[in-house]
Amino acid sequence: MQEKGATVDINWEALGAVAETIGGLGVIITLAYLSLQIRGSNRVARAQSRQSMTEFAMGISRFRAEHADRYARIAAVGEGELTPGDTEFLYWCHMQMLTYGEAYYQQFKLGLMDDSHWEGFSRWIDAYIKSRDFDAFWSREGSSFSADYAAWVNEKMG
């Protein structure tokens, strides 16, 4: 029992060490929580990216289905002359597909697109660049796209 008026000696170093340990644990718990939040946010971003690209592709598919006859005419590489309207249509088909391609490319570079999705798209581009009048379109419009995407397409073209 302590006498009245006696002082209590406090070990400030020990108290400081306990407070520092508690603070360190708080930081570790906070970092673990933030790590889980970031991981979840990344999953959501990848899913949203994939959904966006799917919606874009579905829009292109609907457009192609609506214009199937015209697509059949322009797809016939080397088979007859195209009308001025078909030539313009082909130009915008190339622009549409390469705009889609650049969006896909940039999403892949940002880590929002899985390798397996990117590899399939990359193989598809290999075939697409052989389509009718693509070379002429690309020589005219290739500089309209980002330098890194343009370099990638140029590499694909050989």
Structural notes for this entry:
The chain has one domain. It has 158 residues and is mostly helical. The longest helix is centred in the first third of the chain and has 55 residues. It has six helices and no strands. It is rod-shaped. Helix 1 packs antiparallel against helix 3 and helix 3 packs antiparallel against helix 4.
Label this structure with key terms.
single chain; 158 residues; mainly alpha
Describe the structure concisely for a colleague:
With 158 residues, the protein is mainly α. The protein contains six helices and no strands.
The helix fraction, in percent, is over 70%
Q: What's the quaternary structure here?
A: single chain
Q: Largest sheet, described in full?
A: none
Provide the residue-averaged pLDDT: 85
Rg over CA atoms: 30 Å
Q: Outline the low-pLDDT stretches.
A: none
Based on helices, strands and strand pairing, what is the structural class? mainly alpha
Please tally the helical runs, counting DSSP H or I stretches of 4 or more residues.
Answer: 6
First-residue to last-residue Cα separation: 91 Å
Order of helices and strands: HHHHHH
Our estimate of the beta-strand percent is: under 5%
> What is the number of beta strands?
0
- Quickly count the domains: 1
- The 3D shape can be described as rod-shaped
What are the SSEs and their pairings?
Blueprint: H1 12-66, H2 68-75, H3 84-109, H4 115-128, H5 134-141, H6 147-157
